[in-house]
Task: structure prediction
Amino acid sequence: MPETMLKVKDLHAWYGESHVLHGMDFEVPKGEIVTLLGRNGAGKTTTLRCIIGLLKKREGSITFKGEEMIGQSANVIARSGIAFCPEERGIFSSLSVLENLLLPPKVAEGGMSLERIYELFPILKERGKSQGTKLSGGEQQMLAIARILRSGARLLLLDEPTEGLAPVIVQQIGDIIGSLRDEGFTILLVEQNFRFAERMGDRHFVVEHGQVIDRFERSEVEANREKIAGYLGV
Ligand code: ATP
Result:
């Protein structure tokens, strides 16, 4: 069993008075792709926002490489090596592709070089001078992932990276995420697209009403296909 990179234990969270996470429990082994699956409103995005420190009203434990992250600021968490790529992509649309890449979110040591970024995403080199607003959805998603790679983070939290993208682009993004795992990155992926989650994930946690209600390793998915479809309502 590889070392645990991230461990979430009995995590509760609130938006104002509204209690939305009710004891989330899961762990992400180093070098794996782990998915959080579940219907709209189950609490997946909220979980990512808690990990990165954007949602402050949280209780329980979130350890990253053994260090407690509850109580730490979003800046400290980012500098410790966790990066979040939100569903809305978080790029600066008024800036060019290159300017976005030269403005990493939170600079840490060991960010990926532009050369390596361009190997992984050749389209970003071609589109270097284009403004963010002129990019297709797929190009924006690639730029968003590239930006967090510039930060030097080794744990990547990706919120629905394939949403709204054409199948051929989804395939490309999957290839890139797979290469990142092969390079030793650890990835926590929130997905509604079960086919994509199934392709990418080494293990899966099913979230419902702010709790993990089931879990499957890659080898267990085939035998539990109907059960998982039931959880996701597909
Ligand atoms: P989705 O894919 O729709 O984002 P999700 O599983 O990521 O689904 P969350 O976005 O984490 O779900 O939402 C969990 C619960 O928190 C839902 O009931 C949602 O309505 C509520 N919620 C989300 N964001 C806020 C907010 N900013 N203020 C108040 N409640 C919120």
